[in-house]
Design a protein that fits this description.
Distance between the termini: 41 Å
Oligomer: single chain
Helix content: 40-55%
Number of helices: 6
Radius of gyration: 16 Å
Strand order of the largest sheet: 3-2-1-4
Number of strands: 4
Shape: globular
Length: 170
């Protein structure tokens, strides 16, 4: 009864857990179902190469990218990242952003999706049209999309991703 549990993990996901705590009131591990997603927005996430669920995510993502018959549709992947990743190389639309700009752009996307209290701004010279298309695509695929933040992004960005998923009914 007096035992205490101590755990150390060199590759921790404290930011993701703290982001979940901000969004849900408790630290929970988020699991995504890429087999149900027609549109994916990655905010600095290399979900195809990093994290404990990378194999499952890769299989589900790959199945949604295969078109075998004329009636099949392929999922779309938007990636905002500061460093090239395997996930970014698979993107239909990849936008390179500075690490300091990612939260502001995500805030703007969240604001456009109707997340209460969200606000953000595009950096000067950034392609506003791509963000408009992205927001419309997410709205059109509400309930069948995923917004995922990178494992090592800030807790606030994780909470913002959760809020966007909630606003979209994902």
């Amino acid at each position: 009864p007096n035992a205490t549990w101590h755990q150390y993990d060199a590759m921790h996901s404290d930011s993701a857990l703290e982001g979940a705590r901000l969004a849900f009131g408790e630290a929970v591990t988020t699991r995504y179902d890429f087999s149900q997603a027609d549109v994916i927005l990655s905010l600095g996430s290399d979900f195809l190469s990093e994290g404990p669920a990378k194999l499952r995510y890769t299989k589900e993502f790959s199945r949604k990218r295969k078109v075998r018959e004329a009636s099949d549709s392929m999922s779309r992947l938007y990636v905002l990242e500061s460093t090239p990743t395997n996930t970014g190389m698979m993107a239909d639309h990849r936008l390179t952003v500075r690490p300091s700009q990612l939260t502001g752009i995500a805030g703007l996307i969240a604001e456009e999706l109707g997340v209460e209290g969200a606000e953000g701004a595009l950096p000067e010279g950034f392609d506003a049209h791509t963000i408009e298309v992205l927001v419309e695509d997410l709205k059109e695929h509400a309930g069948k999309s995923i917004v995922i933040a990178g494992e090592f992004e800030s807790p606030f960005l994780h909470a913002l991703a959760h809020a966007m998923n909630s606003a979209l009914g994902n």
